[in-house]
Amino acid sequence: MSELTGSRISPEEREYELRAQIGSIWSGGRLFIGIYTFAIASLVFTYFYLRSTNSASLWRTPGETAPVAMGYAIWICTLLVAFLANYGRRRLRAGFAQDFVVAGWTATGVGLLGLFFQIYILTQVPFYPGANGYSSMFIGYSIFNIGTLVVMTYWIETTTVRAMRVRRELGGDKPELSKHEMAQLFRADVASMVYFQGFIAVAATLFLAMFYWM
Amino acid sequence: MTISAERPVDVVAGAPSLPVSKVSWTQRPGWVSQHLGTAVVMGFLGYVFGHWLGNYIASGYTYVQNTGQNNIADTLALAFMVLGWLLGIGALNYPLLKIVGREPAEEEIPIKHWSRFFRFSLDHKVVGLQYVVGVLLFMFTGGLLAMAVRAELLSPTFHLFSADTYIKIVSEHGTVMMMMATSIIVGPLGNYFVPLMIGARRMAFPRIEAFSFWIFTAGYMVIFAALPYGGFPTGWTGYAPLQTQAGPGMIGYLLGFAVIGTGMIASGFNIGVTIINYRAPGLTWNRIPVFVWSILATASLLTLATPVLFVGGFLGLLDKTVQTAFYVNEHGGSAYLWQNLFWFFGHPEVYIMALPGFGIAGELLPVFTRKPLFAYKVSAAGMMGVALLSFFVWQHHLFQSGINPDMRPLFMLTTELISIPTGFIYLVGLGTMYKAKIRFRLPMMFVMALFFNFLIGGVTGVFLSDVPVNVTVHGGFFVLAHFHYTIMGGLLFAFMAGLYYWLPKMTGRMMNEKIGKWHFWTMFIFFNLTFFPMFFIGLLGQPRRVFEYASNLQGLNDFASISAFLLGVSFIIFAFNLAWSMWINPVKAPANPWDSLGLEWQTASPVPHDNFERIPVIMTDPYRYGEPDAPAFADLGVAVGSNSHEA
Nearest residue on chain B to A155, judged by CA atoms? Predict the structure, then answer.
């Protein structure tokens, strides 16, 4: 498999292992979305369970709302990251690899900004965490979402750095789009990353509706 | 693209798919690198730092000053201990270096030295053996706690422990055993043998695999940290409101489950993706060994059900630390919420534990009956059916907790339905054994014991799914006996079968059959003598988790306790056999001691670093025993008989 292990493999086997690696990135990315779906579904279940149970008539104090502007700012950041990731991928497919790098770094910056807002909002909430079901839910989701934003930002940042590494190590014209193994694995990673960002954007919209519209 | 049976002759020196950086000093063998010792040091430093940070943040909070209990400090101490542990072992090198585009090569230098077992290894075989030691450590410590429980129950009036200590011992025992049981087969045998059985040279994500083991060990420390923190009084189910009212030991429980849960997700994720993508050419879905099917079904449950437990534990930790009220009825939360989240994971967990056991049984039966596996497709469908249905039964655990009574028939029905695919698996076993000339070797004896025990556990489970019976015996020893019959009687016997069967491949040494039979008979007899009386103890009204009981039940309890101690002796015999066979008097294992057709037995012994010299091509079905003219299961592309363990 490698020089380090001293194994010798045929070209057919190398191709087979490459297909397996690409398939793993593809199915791993989708399975990761599955894992996240169940985690987010647990939070959605918690929200509606507490809301419908309304224990001690303390689901939500009338008029109580989490900080609106900050909440929307976090949502917009999440959407922007997903949009930029998707845009970067489209440009990459069209042959504009540099655009992917630019979009990637921009998305990383936006993700970090969203992360800052998500932490900052915890200092601005106008209620005690355990005041009622809504407040608990909001605090719980906010802390969970810090982790989500870290994962989002980490994934797009490392993919962007990887794009630069592919270019540096392979050289030549548009190495990201070449048939080199490294480039193929990179593109599979980009595809999985974009799907994940899109999924998180949808989930963020759902939670925005739950906390601010319902 | 396929690899045909007609092999190409041109073989090139393999080059890594990524241009590699040199192997980091942190991963090189030697003292100046990362290993268990650095993990211990970093874990300790992490603990101290976390505690300081928690005190710095929260020591001025009103509730901390009022109660004198800083849960934030305790939580951060344990969380940073886990983080330090992972940093120290080197699990976070790759993700951190990836941020700056300096991630090291995926390959590691294959270390021959025994110290590789104390490192973050990317070799699935090393991880498998690490898991063997890890789960045995879990099992023996959990077993010691069980001995303490049974010692207390020797007398209804004379007490070794206080009521408070007793419930904490019971809780720790249950939690440790449940955590261990989720990984006892997937961890050691799944990680070691799945790549070998599917003809793969590696796991899909070796770092995630190694991470799953080292975070598993961190989870072990966190859950045992609950004891010096005062323990937790909730049993393994951690029900609110007791959870909310409990002391800081509860943090060990909640964080421990979250940490172990992360490892379970990682483990299931990696194994599932590997099975989907790394199957050798020709290994179509209807040729996959049944053990691999069982691990795939389990992996799907691990990845999808465990996030719910993780979130449940996360919300519980928030209640304990930042004073949210998810499980506090008086503040708009609900104690039932925990029950729903916990059991949405908790019931699939039962099958996370049971399915790999069935997989081992299905794998071993054809070998020892010399017959093809009866109704192979039914077996695979049964496992996937069980996995799917297990998501729809969790509310039967809440029959007595005040759910809407109209919901009871629905969940009674789904629970009874799940006995159908389980029955399929059972019939597959019986069909394979029918009219077979069974070779009663040790692994087969454990498999037959599994069928015997699980029959009792399974049938009583059908009773328990019925609301009237459930209402009558809920919370008593009847339930306790039922789930010990399914988990210990099923899973643990299957694990032992797998261990006796595959240890020769893993270690190149045979387990001593004579001592093994002593182990088997003592374990089988005293397991049944311990737990069968508990059905009667339960029907006569003794509740779980209570250290005093009616004096007329002392005879039965004493009988169960003495049997339990002798059951403990059976594990000492096992430990002795392990030491005897592996170190004191090792006997070299033949290359294929059971005459198995399985792919894992066809590769060289000891298994080379890359498993197979050439990627095998699968030619036929996996269980064509008793067919003299059947073709070989796989074409390995190399001369057979290169086994150094040949006796």
Answer: B99
State ipTM: 0.94
Give the nearest chain B residue to A9 (CA atoms): B14
Question: What angle do the packed helices B124-152 and B493-507 form, to 10 degrees?
Answer: 140
Q: Please work out, in degrees rounded to the nearest 5, the angle formed at the alpha carbon of residue B244 by the alpha carbons of B404 and B183.
A: 80
Query: From the CA of B591, how many Å to the nearest CA of chain A?
Result: 22
Chain B partners within 8 Å of A42 (Cβ)? 307-308, 311-312, 341, 344
Question: What is the distance in angstroms between the Cα of A102 and the nearest Cα belonging to chain B?
Answer: 16
Residue B588's beta-bridge partner residues?
B509
Q: Which two tokens stand for residue B71?
A: 């849960």
Domains, chain A, ordered by start: 29-213 (1.20.120.80)
A46: chain B residues, CB-CB within 8 Å: 311, 315, 326, 337, 341
**B305 and A38 in contact by Cβ < 8 A?**
yes
Which candidate in A15, A32, A37, A42 is best for mutational testing of the B interface (most B CBs within 10 A)?
A: A42
CB contact under 8 A, B303 and A31: yes
Residues facing B618 on adjacent strands: B634
Both structure tokens of B502: 């595959």
Between CA B553 and CA B162 the distance in angstroms is: 20
Q: Find residues 133-172 of chain A whose CB sits inside 8 Å of chain B.
A: 133-137, 139-140, 143-144, 154, 157-158, 161-162, 164-165, 169
Reading the block at residue A166, the tokens are 């592919």
CA atoms of A140 and A136, how far apart (whole Å): 6
Element (H, E) at B617: strand B617-618
B503-515: burial string, b at 16+ Cβ within 10 Å, e else: bbbbbbbbbbeeb
Give the bridge partners for A8, in sequence order.
Answer: B13
Helix axes B408-417, B442-465, angle to 10 degrees: 160
Is A94 at the interface with chain B, CB within 8 A? no
pLDDT above 90 covers what percent of chain B? 79
Q: Which amino acid is at B420?
A: I
Region of poorest pLDDT, from A101-115, B318-332, B390-404: B390-404
Q: Which of B331, B395, B401, B407 to mutate against chain A (most A CBs within 10 Å)?
A: B331
Q: Is B29 helix (H, G, I), strand (E, B) or coil?
A: coil
- Whole-angstrom Cα distance, residue A202 to residue B5? 47
- C-alpha B410/C-alpha A17 separation (Å) is 47
Determine the residue type at A194: V
* Rounded-to-integer distance, Cα B504 and Cα B588, Å: 8
Whether A201 contacts A79, CB under 8 Å:
yes
* Residues constituting chain A: 214
What is the third-level CATH fold of B121-584? Cytochrome C Oxidase; Chain A (1.20.210)
* Nearest by CB: B14 against A3, A43, A45: A3
In the block, residue with structure tokens 């029900």 = B239
Distance CA B479, CA B473 (A): 7
pLDDT digits (tens, 9 = 90+) for B99-152: 998 887 655 566 677 788 899 999 999 999 999 999 999 999 999 999 999 999
What distance in Å separates the CA atoms of residue B497 and residue B450, rounded to the nearest whole number?
9
- CA separation (Å) from B439 to B432, B433, B511, B518, B629? 13, 11, 17, 18, 22
Rounded CA-CA distance B106/A194 in Å is 24
pLDDT in tens, B558-587: 999 999 999 999 999 999 999 999 999 999
- Tens-digit pLDDT profile for residues B169-201: 999 999 999 999 999 999 999 999 999 999 999
